[in-house]
Amino acid sequence: MTSSSLPPQGARRALIVGSGISGLAAALSLHRAGWQPLIIERAPERRTGGYFVRFNGPGYTAADRLGILDSLPDRRDPEGRAFEVDSRGRLTPGLTFPEQVNGTPMRMLLRSDLERVLYEAVQDLVEIRYGTGPAAITQDRDQVTVTLTDGSVESADLLIGADGIHSSVRSLVFGPEDLYRKDFDHVVAACVMDGPLPGMRDGDTLVATAPGRSAWINSYRDHPPVAFLLYRTDWPAAEIRKKPSDALRQAFAGFGGDIVPAMLEAMNRSESVLFDQVSQIHLSRWSQGRVLLLGDSAWCMTLHSGQGSGMGIAGAELLARLLTEHGDLPTALGSWEQRLRPLVTRYQKEALRMRHFFMPANRFGRIARSTLIRAASTPVGAKLGKALMG
Ligand SMILES: Cc1cc2nc3c(=O)[nH]c(=O)nc-3n(C[C@H](O)[C@H](O)[C@H](O)COP(=O)(O)OP(=O)(O)OC[C@H]3O[C@@H](n4cnc5c(N)ncnc54)[C@H](O)[C@@H]3O)c2cc1C
């Protein structure tokens, strides 16, 4: 942090837990609004990994307002081809991601693109303290006080829990995760592959779906493809305790010709594999006094919504604007929640609907999906397809 970047004397302090997309966006927005943010991150260093992000809607607008849009690449490959893979591994034309949704632009990004651009925007402005997290939180009329796991104590005007779906801030202030987590009967696995599969061209996207199973390979400009698998199980919490390679081999046995086994091999070679259950977070309030939840900790929508990162940024940017507009904290936080909740509710509902597009629940869903994709070659079908992929 350089001396020229010091916030004005007497600036209000915000303690932000988590240096993911939401936490970094909150730090940038609040610093711009004259606050003095401090980020606390549990990981020992920057978390730079992650998967694909379809970036449009409120997050896109907020990124523009924050002045970071021009630094964000569009990794869509204009030469890219999209294929559906049938049960025997044969390829048919698939759906590509549109450049616009409802007249508003969309970019294909990686989570690491967003993280890097936000990190670079705050690195000289905001202190990030790694390797620690909240152990206890108390608050009174004037401040919120956090005892950290390294024994230090920090006080602030506002505490922002941007610490993801398994938020400690939420557990400490709002209660145990079980009260707020709604599990889908899905498990997700994803990894960055070490290159395209044999026979695939750079830029090719492959999708194989069957009732209760789906496998995707998404390709990007200047980046290796990302493999992404979803499957249905009655006991996702038990499933994710299994060794990922064993669970995936069992779940995808006999599926997708040679392509899915090759994806599983690529996952076995990968150093970092996401293997988790798919859940949403639902709370009736996102703030209590001087403590506010932001991003996945408050409203995790699942990857099916395609808006998780975007809403973290949109929520952060709106928060800073309302804190400037209303000097009074309860009014600002109340107004923030009132304005965001309809959008979050809509995206959470859309995620429920979209889960059938990502992975058909039954044979009829599979047929409906195939029909839609075949119809995408007609003008009406193309519009429908674009609406779905957006
Ligand atoms: C496969 C996949 C595809 C997705 N696709 C999209 C998409 O197309 N579009 C989209 O917008 N979103 C998408 N998402 C969702 C998106 O990635 C998340 O919604 C978003 O990254 C959440 O950001 P966050 O900062 O709120 O939480 P996180 O990214 O979870 O960050 C939380 C941070 O808090 C830290 N932390 C946790 N606990 C503590 C603690 N106790 N103390 C201190 N620090 C702590 C963590 O280390 C982490 O750095 C996708 C997700 C997945 C898995």
TrEMBL record:
Domain FAD-binding: from-to ranges: 14-325
Matches recorded under SUPFAM superfamilies: FAD/NAD(P)-binding domain
Keyword Oxidoreductase found: yes
GO molecular-function term, one example from the UniProt record: FAD binding
Keyword Ribonucleoprotein appears in the UniProt entry: no
UniProt signal peptide: none
Alphabetically ordered keywords of this record: Monooxygenase, Oxidoreductase
Top-rank taxon, per record: Bacteria
Name of the protein this chain belongs to: FAD-dependent monooxygenase
